[in-house]
Specification:
Helices cover about 80% and strands about 0% of the residues. It contains 4 helices and no strands. Helix 2 (about 40-55) packs across helix 3 (about 60-70) and helix 2 packs antiparallel against helix 4 (about 75-90).
């Protein structure tokens, strides 16, 4: 009987650890793959798009932000328009 209780306890702990690791993995994937709540604002996107179009090298973080920008805005004009709207909203 004690053996079965220990096996059940070990399985429960393993399941709990698996759920915690899955949650951490999902959080990291969301924030780094899709930008999460930290996606760059439109004005920063304009700067990144201009830098990329000029052929300048982007750092790892800039490349991630640039990819998020291209998902968010169809082109530089759309980002510029949104930037202008954000600046004039104040």
């Amino acid at each position: 009987m004690a053996d079965e209780g220990q096996k059940t306890l070990k399985r429960s702990i393993a399941a709990f650890v698996a759920v915690i690791l899955a949650a951490i993995g999902a959080y990291v994937f969301y924030n780094y793959e899709w930008g999460g709540g930290n996606s760059p604002d439109a004005c920063h996107c304009v700067e990144l798009i201009e830098k990329a179009q000029s052929g300048a090298a982007l750092s790892g973080e800039e490349m991630r932000d640039y990819q998020n920008c291209t998902k968010k805005y169809s082109n530089k004009f759309a980002a510029e328009t949104q930037c202008w709207n954000e600046r004039n909203k104040k």
